[in-house]
Amino acid sequence: PAPPWVRQFDEATETSGSPAASSTFLLDDHQIRVGQQTVDRYYHHIQRIDTAAGLDDLSQVRFSFEPSYQKLALHFIRIRRGGDLIDVLRNSQIKVIQQEEGLNQQLYNGTLTAIAFLNDLRVGDVVDYAYTVSGENPVLGGRYAESLYLADNQPIQHLRMRVVLPADRSIKITTTN
Question: pTM of the entire structure?
């Protein structure tokens, strides 16, 4: 289950229309709990497949984490098709790989990626998944820094960002563009 500090989002109604992209985020929910020495990041995404290209986009759902100081918890992966809700977390095949994108530049970071392979997706399906990445780089020494993006290259119907801090901790927010 989701951590107790997470606030669940009331289900949003879907709007239709001509798709501007291969898929549409119906919900892009980021909730972050900052502790004294650690950070928990909860993500909940609901994404509708609008075109055949969207099938490729969502046939593999990826979750990245740094295993030396982070822990990944998958809460659910489900597909909404018409009135049916299909739980694919227990049926899906999940593989953990070490994908070093900077290797050609001799950069190694040790990040792992868990990939859930979703089978039998169809145009019009809604993929709904949530996960938490817990832990913070010890190099930061308890300090917290984050970039929160308020736009994407795909349409987003509902975007929610929530940061939970201890009462005795201050935060500085800087906006750009």
Answer: 0.87
